[in-house]
Amino acid sequence: MREALQGAGLWDEVEDRLDRPGAGLSGGQQQRLCIARALAVDPEVLLMDEPCSALDPMATLKVEDLIGRLKERVTVVIVTHNMQQAARVADTTVFMLDGGLVEVGETEKIFMNPDDERTEQYVSGKFG
Questions:
Q1: What's the pLDDT tens digit per position in 26-55?
Q2: Which has the closest alpha carbon to 70: 87, 45, 49?
Q3: H-type helices in the chain, by residue range?
């Protein structure tokens, strides 16, 4: 438990209240608690669906920093509609549209010089 909470960057914030329900934690802490629970089984891949949805900017920063540390030891797949977040945390970006794969590439290339016009339109905010 301690290792998972440390891995999620949460141990120092909760070590003195391990006997209390997780519902008493802030939204960002609850999100990192969910990540700690996933890390407890030592996964090879961690799938995060909108990991910072409804979080304030400071909590989002903590989760994004955590993602940066986690991707050194586990493959992290993030589903997000937040283009800025994808640009900040992803090494590789996949753009999908209407359930189909449009483009895959290094994040910088996808955002700066995509091969497909639909990708360019989406990342530039022309639709979506």
A1: 999 999 999 999 999 999 999 999 999 989
A2: 45
A3: 2-7, 11-14, 27-39, 57-70, 83-89, 107-112, 117-123
